[in-house]
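Researcher: Please predict.
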Amino acid sequence: MGGHTFYPGGLVVDMRPHVAMELDESRDILRVQSGALWSDVIPYLDARGRSVAVMQSNNSFSVGGSLSVNCHGWQFDRGPIASTVESLRLMQADGSIVRCARTENAELFSLVLGGYGLFGIILDVELRVVENERYRLEQHVVPLAQSLATFDRRVDGEPDVRMVYARLCIVPDRLFDEVIISAFFMEAGEVPELSGRGLPDLRRAMFRGSVGSDYGKHLRWSAETEIEPLLTDKSFSRNQLLNEGVAVFENRTEGSTDVLHEYFVPRTGVVAFVKAMREIIPAHDADLLNVTVRSVNRDEDTFLRYADQRMIAFVMLFTQARTEAGEADMRTMTRGLIEAAIAAGGRHYLPYRLHATRDQFHRAYPQARRFFELKRHYDPNELFRNGFYRTYGAE
């Protein structure tokens, strides 16, 4: 969203034709080319009784792109996707191809994962995969003040929990007053056949109907807390939960665009950060569509890590007008939220709009100066560039 795959006057390498994959069932290792989408990977693994260990919540993205942003999802008690990478092959700026792993070209391995394409082209990767399992959904709708205690009592530490996320109430006159906690527990029984999640048209209508409408947001929250639990299935396969694209919520209008934010804060900073959100977002009259909350474990593998400890991730979706005024308002609000995250001991996620000031970026990621020095060491002619590098890294 910040030009991470483009540079003015540059060339874009399209990896999408490169989709070959092969599963080593004896090791639970999938070797897959970087152009494959998760919508390609999931059916392939499903037919072999396996599933992706860590990915983002939608299947529309590529494997190489996911590695380059070091994505994470709502797989519980897991770190980012880097934690599942056994090795990868990288084409460097001089055309050479090197294998990178924790014990081979280890520094480059840590830089490429979450490196936004600045160190070379990821050709293929070996990913550790897991069993496809049958899950039972358990949901709790609780006041915000009880959410962490409910999570501790009903979810954290339970041996069979596999996937967890929460959503905050975004109704303006009840902003963040309530939380839906959705937890998926492994259960015995036949694993359901692969399909998308149910009621996609209804869920899309409810979601897009909340754009620019307080009434729509009221209606959607009522449906999500009172009606949807009665209509939705209670048992899923892991692959069913992962196998949904962005079409269910994407913006298809010309006059506005949806903008993602994401912030990572430690548990000790959650209360202060939510308090700041409650003040900052209404002050800018922002059209907030969603806040999803996840837990992500410490990242042990990447250089430009966002999870330097176990973090609580707040994923927000806004709609803004495609105007200079709309962009300026979003930039100002974003900087306020970034400042609140830093004050809470956290930071913002980097794949999104480049609205952080250089000072904010370097305070959030103090290792970034060394990251960019190493970029120029491995790519001295700066062949690989993008909007992110031009904004924060170029000398």
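Model: The first helix runs from residue 38 to 46.
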